[in-house]
Design a protein that fits this description.
Radius of gyration: 49 Å
Shape: elongated
Number of strands: 30
Number of helices: 8
CATH topology of the largest domain: OB fold (Dihydrolipoamide Acetyltransferase, E2P)
Strand content: 35-45%
Strand order of the largest sheet: 3-2-1-4-5
Largest sheet: 5 strands, antiparallel
CATH superfamily of the largest domain: Nucleic acid-binding proteins
Structural class: mainly beta
Length: about 550
């Protein structure tokens, strides 16, 4: 509805302040033009704390409340300004009326919306709340309904996130009698999507570099919105380096540059690359790194067999677990390094064709085995600390970076040691004899029993002879027999066959039992004593 202009008034219209004798008749004619429920164009007379006084051509002026204006609007109003108002009611007897600026705005906006609807033009609005079936939208003073299916291109799981935001909408349906509007955001998005797709297709050629937005990330790559068209950026085409997951490189919403690697017009599939925007660093790696060069890098991954170190963008090297430290190999790399740690390493090997770099951490430090060549020799007695026990022996730290091995066979002259824990414990301080030193193989053999003379050369053959009988104590029971301690730590073995032949019914002796035995064999070469139960004693 358009506002009534001054030219719409009777030709002999005069101001209410006129002294004309025909004023009353002119006022009556004016009422025929001004009807409640219409919008008229008035003139601002005064702005004060009571409101905005507006002359619309009647006996007295109307007043618009201040709360119908914004502070900015009030600052811009001055007497003489033209202002459209809505005539709420007219009291003919008193010559007064009620007018509203807010309702005039709504009427003007409604006319604007009707024009947009007829021409198919978009309108501006703000989503104000979620209601049953959709959303309530404020179209600059006029309420409208936005069905849930028309909110976005795809179903929305959390529509509340749209509340409070301004968007463009298309009016789908109008009920003029009830002044109801149904609007759509999705319709405009589809049109924009089609336009963007057409523009993208026009630029889509193999090798073209485009900007896109990371739409979503999967285990195998990321889908990138190029503008109305999605392309797949595979994890193998994200970086020249090694990625365990695409999220290590990109996150949803990132705007990135990509290169078109392949495009099928038939299927619409687009294959993208990101690493192809920069030269492959592996093609020139030998120009930047030489064997033996010291490099700095960041630990980016730990495995059971070593640590991966990034020495530059796209280039990772492996520090094998054997190259982490001098001395005993750690059980796992995490004992030495942690992810995110910056380290120095030595380049051991380069293989550009296999895209591999071998690094060493321990070789950044002096090799203690080189110095050991002159400090240690066979027959030397050393002191050390038991660091680790294995099934075959005990590792003893002689000094930082140098460990020696005491094999189970070198722990006792007389005892049959099956596990080093029978003689030593981790953390024990021990003395041992150096048996051999091999710096080139980083090996040192140690012995405990060599601290004393070999009793099998002098002592045992003279004290223990075939036929002698002894009262001994069972110290170990195994599948093939029973070990018996005779004296001074000397052990002999009663084979299972001897136990059966002596007494088929007799029970096998148990650990701690005292038994009378007879010496059946003394083998000084094999360092073994064969025993049998003394039947006479039994």
């Amino acid at each position: 509805m358009s506002a009534i202009q001054p030219q719409d008034m009777p030709e002999n219209h005069v101001s209410p302040n006129s002294n004309s004798e025909d004023f009353e008749s002119l006022y009556t004619e004016g009422l025929k033009v001004l009807q409640a429920g219409g919008v008229v164009q008035g003139v601002v007379v005064q702005v004060d704390e009571n409101g905005v006084m507006v002359d619309i051509g009647l006996k007295s002026e109307g007043v618009v409340p201040l709360d119908e204006f914004t502070e900015e609007e009030l600052r811009g109003l001055s007497p003489g300004d033209s202002l459209a108002v809505f005539v709420v009611s007219i009291d003919e007897a008193r010559g007064t009326m009620r007018i509203s600026r807010e309702k005039a705005r709504r009427m003007e906006q409604w006319d604007h919306l009707m024009e947009a609807f007829e021409k198919g033009l978009p309108v501006e609005g703000r989503i104000v709340e979620k209601i049953k079936g959709g959303m309530a939208v404020d179209l600059q003073g006029v309420s409208a309904f936005l069905p849930g299916s028309q909110l976005d291109l795809r179903p929305v799981a959390n529509p509340e996130r749209f509340v409070g935001n301004a968007y463009r909408f298309k009016i789908l349906k109008v009920n003029r009698q009830r002044r109801n509007l149904i609007v759509s955001r999705r319709t405009l998005l589809e049109l924009e999507h089609q336009e963007l797709r057409a523009q993208t297709l026009a630029r889509l050629t193999k090798g073209a570099v485009l900007e896109g937005r990371v739409k979503n990330i999967t285990d195998y790559g990321a889908f990138v919105d190029l503008g109305g068209l999605d392309g797949l950026l595979h994890i193998s085409d994200m970086s020249w380096g090694r990625l365990r997951h695409p999220s290590e490189k990109f996150k949803t919403g990132d705007r990135i540059q990509v290169m078109v690697l392949d495009f099928s017009e038939d299927t619409g599939k687009v294959t993208l690359g990101h690493k192809q925007l920069t030269p492959d660093p592996w093609t020139t790696i030998t120009e930047r790194y030489g064997l033996g060069r010291r490099v700095r890098g960041l630990v980016v991954g730990l495995t059971d067999y070593g640590a991966f170190v990034e020495i530059e963008e796209g280039i990772e090297g492996l520090v094998h677990i054997s190259e982490l430290k001098w001395g005993t190999r750690p059980r796992k790399p995490s004992e030495i390094l942690s992810k995110g740690q910056e380290i120095e390493a030595i380049v051991l090997r380069l293989d550009p064709s296999e895209r591999r770099v071998s690094l060493s951490l321990k070789q950044t430090q002096p090799n203690p085995w080189e110095a050991a060549r002159g400090r240690y020799h066979a027959g030397q007695i050393i002191q050390g600390k038991v660091k680790n026990l294995t099934d075959f022996g005990a590792f003893v730290q002689v000094e930082e970076g140098i460990d020696g091995l005491i094999h189970v066979s070198d722990m006792s002259w007389t005892r049959h040691v099956r596990h080093p824990s029978e003689v030593l414990r981790k953390g024990d301080e021990v003395e041992a004899v150096v048996l051999s030193v091999e710096p080139e193989r980083e090996r040192m053999a140690l012995g405990l029993k060599q601290l004393g003379p070999d009793p099998w050369i002098s002592g045992i053959p003279q004290r223990i002879r075939v036929g002698d009988t002894f009262l001994g104590r069972v110290i170990k029971v195994v599948e093939f027999g029973v070990f018996v301690e005779l004296a001074d730590g000397v052990e002999g073995l009663i084979y299972s066959s001897e136990l059966k032949s002596s007494d088929e019914e007799a029970a096998k002796p148990q650990v701690g039992d005292e038994v009378k035995v007879r010496v059946l064999k003394v083998d000084t070469n094999e360092r073994k004593i064969g025993l049998g139960l003394d039947v006479a004693a039994a």
